[in-house]
Amino acid sequence: MSNNDILRAVRYMLDLSDARLAQIIALTDPALVSGREEAQALLKKDDEPGATACTDRVLAAFLDGLVTSLRGHDPGRPPRPPERRIDNNMVLKKLRVAFKLQDADMHEILAAAGMPVSKPEMSALFRQPGHKNFRPCGDQLLRHFLRGLTLRVRGTD
Asked: Among candidates 53, 54, 78, 66, which has minimal Cα distance to 26?
């Protein structure tokens, strides 16, 4: 999945306005997206005129800002620098933290989206990349997770 697809999916899930999206990114790094117009350019389809590619740094800042927005800021901890490279496993981890999801919640979300995974498969997604049981998160699994999380957050309209 492209970073723009992930950004659009989370925006739809939470029903965020363009201005609110820019505010969430600014919680982590105010210099990345200066306002509503830049946020709109990130949300446009790839073939639309004026579309801007969402970089790994912008997506990481958005996900870190989402964690801060939904869970609050811990004044005792210094802000984390945004990652330079972000992959599907990191997106999954950050969404898990932002929405306070436990293992059972993750299994329910993926099962509701039509892609049940076993406990060992799930734990392999959250291991460090150098670990022998690490498993990279594929685009299909992330797409199903975002769909299931959207069903959970927005309801079954």
From this structure: 66
